[in-house]
Structure formats: C-alpha cells, structure tokens
Design brief:
306 residues, 71% helix, three-stranded antiparallel beta sheet, Arc Repressor Mutant, subunit A, mainly alpha, disordered N terminus, 2 domains
C-alpha cells in the first residue's frame, strides 16, 4: 500500500502541473516506500550472509553483498530499488563485521590479498556454519526440515506452521506470530490430553481433570500441567531429556510464543511485532515442537505419576 500511494503521489504532482518529478526524487520516494513496506532486518540479512559464506569459503565483500541482494529479491524479502539495495549492502557489511567478531571469518583471503574487502572462513567458521538448517525465508526447505524433525506431527499444528512461514515470507509478521502461537497452544493441548490419559492413580487423575477444566484459558491449563510436571521432575520420575524439556524448552518456548501472539493479535493487548522477533521464533520453533512432541509421545507409552 505504501508503494502504491507513493506512485500515486508522484503521478498527482505531475498531473497538477507542478513540474516533472526528477529521477532522483522518484527513486528516493519509491525507495523509501518500498523499504517501509518490506523492512528487511539485520537478522534476515545475517542469515542470508551466513548462507552465502557456507557456500563460498573465500571471496570479497562486494560479491557477498551482491549475492545477498539477489537472494533477498528472489525470496521476495524486499522490492528492488536503489535505496533498498544500498541498505542491504550496508547490512551485509555489518553482518561480515559481526562474523569477524565471532571468529567465523578473517579479513584477507591469502598472502596476496591480506586485507578487507577480501575474507575467508576460519576453521571455527566452517564448523559453525556447515550443517545449519534451512532459514525461514526458504519456505519449502524450512518445512521439509520441520517435517523431518517432527515426524508424525499433528496435522493441525503442521498447518499452522506452514501458514506461519508463508505469512512471514509475505511480510505479514503479525499473522505469522498468531499462527505460531496457535501451533504452540495446540501442542500444549495435545500434551495435556496425553498426560491426563497417562495418570494411573484414580484420585490424582480426577483431581487433575477438575483442576485443568476449572478455567478455559490456555495459560491456566499450562500452569496446571506445569505444576504436575514439575513434581515429576522433582521426584526424578522423568528421563533426563524430558526433564530438561519441562524445565527449559517448554516454559521458555510457550511463554515467548504466547506473548508474541498476544501482542500480534489479542484485541486487549495491542502492540507491534518486530519481524526480527518472528524470524527468531520461526527458527527456534522446530526444536521446540520436536521436544514437546517427544514429551507427548512419552506419556502415550508411560504412566504419569508424582
């Protein structure tokens, strides 16, 4: 919409006889509108830069910047215009300095080209970058990786994740945040059902059912379940992997995704959602889902007692 209004504004200036809009002014107005419409953040550019470095162990800054710009255009992360291209090139420069600080690269390719703008991957960089999972800006690769790590995932959860990654790639960060929140809440409900069915003690099961159904809000159900799971962890009645999920991944992931979802779509909690935050949420969601699914599967075959 911003880009459309910018074009209409330029045409109106010309039509009303205020003179011809110069090419530099046109580029500035359209460039600013496109950048506002598609705010490509540092984290997305960093991910694109690391992807390029993984495939090109040495080279020059200019080659990296050009490749990242083309990838951003092909992935529809930004619309082509001179100002947006300049901004992406500067973000690539920042990404390469960030990689230098993290010892992923060093400046200089060899003895004949020992300084910036040349670079090469360090041994630490090769080990760190190689084998990284597909990024959210690659929907097909991202979903393929998700399916491989979350075999047999609930179809509703999978549908939410698919819609989230496509929404993100169409510059709908709030929609993506809502879909990820829905996916997380559906997984929690499935975990609640599996846990309830696994309770072997009749009195404890009756009490749990009464407690968890006392309120319909997802946060209440989460706290009720978490109370029993914490008791199992304290009593060392869960394998180490699942105890870690209960203590770390479940609370961190659930709270993060719930708050982001509320900020994006809850009518009583208006707020802006940073695309960078949604990007990070997408990146962590596969491991979060794998952990919660594994815990759900565990209670499908083992008793819940505390």
């Amino acid at each position: 919409m911003g880009l459309l209004l910018a074009r209409v504004g330029i045409e109106t200036v010309q039509r009303r006889g205020y003179g011809t809009v110069s090419s530099s002014y046109r580029f500035a107005v359209l460039g600013f509108a496109a950048m506002s419409q598609n705010p490509l953040g540092f984290r997305e550019v960093l991910a694109l830069t690391l992807e390029h470095l993984a495939q090109n162990a040495s080279g020059q800054y200019g080659g990296v910047a050009d490749a990242v710009w083309r990838r951003a255009i092909d992935s529809r992360l930004v619309q082509a215009n001179p100002l947006a291209e300049q901004r992406v090139h500067e973000l690539v420069r920042e990404a390469m300095w960030d990689s230098l600080i993290k010892r992923l690269i060093v400046f200089g390719r060899d003895a004949s080209n020992p300084n910036w703008p040349f670079y090469r991957l360090t041994e630490h960089g090769r080990a760190t970058i190689d084998g990284k999972p597909p990024q959210p800006y690659d929907p097909d690769g991202f979903l393929k990786h998700f399916d491989a790590n979350c075999l047999g995932i609930d179809v509703t959860v999978r549908g939410y994740v698919e819609e989230a990654v496509h929404a993100f790639n169409n510059n709908c960060a709030r929609s993506a945040a809502v879909m990820l929140g829905c996916a997380s809440e559906k997984m929690l409900l499935l975990l609640c059902d599996a846990f309830e069915a696994a309770i072997s003690d009749g009195a404890k099961k009756t009490q749990f059912t009464s407690d968890i159904n006392a309120k319909w809000m997802i946060l209440h159900k989460y706290k009720t379940l978490r109370d029993r799971l914490d008791r199992m962890v304290d009593g060392r009645k869960l394998p180490r992997e699942h105890a870690d999920t209960v203590s770390s991944e479940l609370p961190a992931g659930f709270e993060l995704l719930r708050r982001c979802r509320n900020a994006a779509g809850h009518p009583d909690v208006p707020g802006n959602v940073d695309p960078d935050t949604v990007f990070l949420n997408l990146r962590m969601f596969t491991e979060y889902a794998r952990r919660v699914q594994a815990l759900t599967t565990y209670f499908g075959a083992n008793a819940a007692d505390w």
